[in-house]
């Protein structure tokens, strides 16, 4: 029988272990509370207790992901044979403590959870951003132009939405599919949208100043296409941008299932905003459609979009977890929360901690995002 | 029961505040008024002065963040402010009923009209369902709706706006309340419909002996309906008294200024211009010390007006006439207004824009369930007009008559279905706005109706004006455009600091000025103004209208002024075009259109507009029914369903043949089958008694 | 109305065709077929052997042709070798003449599952039945409680009751099934907590449902959907409560209860109805997770087996069912919205 720590000791050591996170949180809250009257909607978040809780939870995980190397206690992949399925607080043979116990391979559950935060927060927000780029770039013209374009795009969006997500994942995230080049093709299309988006954004605004326009569009194209070649084709000549194939697979699938929903939301918002007089005013002074969509309509749809963005990061996190749960995650060894839950669930009734720890972590992050979104929505509706 | 001496409603020193997170908003302060049995009390004032808050305070329905912070409201001697929830419920609907602005929103969309009506007696009286429905049927007849049995079974959305408002009135009268509160009951309705509703309310109140608290921003309407009047400014009553008395002998500077800023018959843009009230309405939490009206008052005396709270003082000698002005006995109330700068009328130049036989038909796609064929909506039929340089052509008509469609066709947001629009000799009817060059676009610009909606909320004022300059390809460099932008702000009399502000930091009138600056950025030759002032407060309306006139005079712009407000049209337009259901029914100079002979529709329209001047007598012609839908216009003359002159036309000509727009004198043309002799028998609608 | 339904159905058929085609294409990609050949033939086949196996079993034909065969609009393939004619529609050991030329979904032939060694239609029918029971109880638990929570929370926006219920609903929407399932199992059936009220698996529920073996899976699915529906209902309810006609009702002297029940309820339920219907596709997700977690061999479990074992025919069958479920619920939500909303019904 190895030594164990009591729960009180475990919790106090856990709390201590997170010191960089606490410091960072303290700084953020102190600054935000101090300047909250000057920071608009962000500042008003601090008027709502639930909003603060949500923001705090989200920032907790953000900082944990940032400072993961400082917070963790063991190598998340390192196995200690004696520590298999050990309860929280067990002392390792060389004197360390598995604060939250060991998993079925004898790895430290706590360190894996901390590293999992980095995994999740590296993918979920980025995938959501890409989904937004795609959804916005297609949703704007669909809502603004209507007609056949709208009918076609909506049909495609509904097609994707009618696909049961799990089935789609099983079809898209299998290793075999990589050999067909389908993920790369999808990535090539999906990752092009940000480039298109920003090119249109600058061009529509600055075509009256050719010099400025050429600069902005040029920089966008160079940077965008550079990143694009690296991310989608792994063909970046300088080797700065790259994504491992398995990751690309997961990433593309997540963007692909999220984009249609964003599309629908944007389309709905555009249909509403385009009836405003300022849009008519822009039309009567002869503005082009892309200027109207990107500069007159989009900025005024930002409220609901920001709220949805927060919600969607949470949803993407859940989705990534689902992938891990079905063993389709980034890689089998990966400490991402979904995969860890999947690993742990087999022994759930005997040794629950390897599954329950990442489960609670995921729950708290998604809860934080939801509370944040809810508070943002409420605050933006108030006076 | 109450005898004639105890008031039905007595409000004393009422204060109501709303509590928001950041501060307390005192919406009503120290408000007192008294309503006697059978009396109709009018409550007037500009938007945000607290009229609705008073009404809701009487109903004790102020929402979660509203609270009565002082004073008392006594209804038949019982204090409402301290009443329990139960007792209050017994009062609401049975003793006091309320009607408010949006008729459609006031009716439950998922409940049949009959059920909503019958509910009132079912709640308050112990009667059976059958009896309640019978009562509902009877009251529908009372509010003069046709076919009560069908209406009982109808859903609210199956009725027109006017019919809905009648149902709301019926609902309020179901339990014979002794006090009826009406909060802008007709603001959402067309004038000809409004006239009918107002008549109805007055008759029914008289019949049942109901007292009324009638809230409106329309002074003319209050004069039509009410016996007594209470003028509110910034949360306070500033003047109360008998309606005619107050209207003819106003004893508060605000009341006086208000009257001078509304276009009454006799006002003229060149010879007798309106006088706008300077400055802005104070926000409830930023009121000045002493007299609230002080900063905008011409008679302000420092040290007196801002030294203490001003009490209500007796005024004018007549009983129950009070004014909240400390100098009420010193001011010479009959002194004529300091004459605003008058100007020479501008002689019109050559024809700039011309439309001939213009038509715009919309094809409505067969709806979700429209199994049948696509319908054609004739939004504009045979529009003919021309306008000269420096001239103001007003286009009037009620909602749905096709005014805005006409504006869209002119602007190129829609292309015409037939006919021509000629601008400076070029035909532009088939040229959508994308195909128009910068020169054409900048010479034909538009000012929009809703000031809260014409500016992009996320872009600064300066940036929006500069953007217009860029698009019109005006100015050589960024610095030059910035300069021009500042000059445009000067032109519309806005401080230059506004360039960096966001629209939400501006008031409605200021936003409208920015809209005007943007329209004139490219020195527009023709400006289409679609109801540019109808969403603004009266005191601001005058200033914006004058600004528009001034710029027009300076640039010799042709102004196409679209409006439903005949008062303002008479004031500023040179010529008037009256539209009904997509047709031009009458066109002529302002004098010709506003005096007989009229088109029968113009006659009714003119008579429906309330005039806030006791010297004016007005013939009342109340049109029956509502405006037909443009989807389903009547055959023959478009106006034939409501025309009172139709019997004079032989045969069924009116029902079968669309009349010609024929000249009757000079440029005055009328679309009617009546003969010249018959037209000549028409009498004037409005007569101003000699002073 | 007829026109509307007709167009709706046409779109549905088009969607279903496109989707099944995509699934067909994805499952029949060369690497998948190769895997199929190796698992059906033997694992150490050479590339040439794989090619010939595929050729012999009709997998070498053009994609569209194969899709047509599966659908039943193209005649099944036949292959003559050594005097024996085999073919898609030819049962082993029978003569070609005794078999029909077409055999596909339209003829009721869904193929043979390679994992379960049984006709796909049979498997799906039984599994779907089991999932149907699960879904039924989920609905029974979820819908009334979600609506009740939403209405209680929305009728007095900002009240303490609202705060508590809203936070609870947000929490449940933030808890995916694989998290809540794990937590529930740990709390109610692990030796660690020791309550042991319920069973951690639902395998025995396939033979007979008891509260003990079925409550946890049902609760797990219901919880996730419940929060979402409750929040939609709350939003709709609180919006309705600020509507003018609610003020009208209040100022008629109606009591709060009457205002809520007679005036607010019906208007407030229009929006959640659509949401509930659109919830079905998500429930399907939940079903897959929960059936895997609780080892309940229903439709979701079958889908995972089919996908994990490259059982092409079964996977196709499952996707058809899933797609049809999604499309039918979408259509129902549209039609229901129209029926519930008098404003749209007539105009
Ligand atoms: N619920 C509320 N919360 C905060 N402030 C409010 C609320 N309702 C009204 N107010 C404020 O109280 C003041 C009086 O408003 P009220 O609606 O009574 O004006 P009104 O005279 O009826 O205007 P209108 O002619 O536009 O109807 C305004 O400044 C308004 O902004
Ligand atoms: S009290 Fe003074 S400032 Fe106020 S209205 Fe009278 S004169 Fe004007
Ligand atoms: S044509 Fe007949 S119906 Fe039309 S306005 Fe003249 S008199 Fe009336
Ligand atoms: Mg009001």
UniProtKB/TrEMBL annotation, chain B:
Major location (coarse): membrane
Protein's organism: Frigidibacter albus
Family: Belongs to the ABC transporter superfamily.
Family annotation (Gene3D superfamilies): P-loop containing nucleotide triphosphate hydrolases
MF (Gene Ontology): ATP binding; ATP hydrolysis activity
Superkingdom to which the source organism belongs: Bacteria
Pfam family, one: oligo_HPY
Keywords for the protein's UniProt record, in alphabetical order: ATP-binding, Cell membrane, Membrane, Nucleotide-binding, Transport
Residue span(s) of domain ABC transporter: 9-259, 353-606
InterPro entries associated with the record: AAA+_ATPase (IPR003593), ABC_Ni/Peptide_Import (IPR050388), ABC_transporter-like_ATP-bd (IPR003439), ABC_transporter-like_CS (IPR017871), Oligopep_ABC_C (IPR013563), P-loop_NTPase (IPR027417)
GO BP, sorted A to Z: peptide transport; transmembrane transport
Record protein name field: Dipeptide ABC transporter ATP-binding protein
From TrEMBL, chain C:
A Pfam family: BPD_transp_1
Mode of membrane association: Multi-pass membrane protein
Alphabetical GO biological process terms: transmembrane transport
Chain segments annotated as coiled-coil in the UniProt record: none
Keyword field: Cell membrane, Membrane, Transmembrane, Transmembrane helix, Transport
CDD domains, per the entry: TM_PBP2
Protein name: ABC transporter permease subunit
Source species taxonomy: Bacteria, Pseudomonadati, Pseudomonadota, Alphaproteobacteria, Rhodobacterales
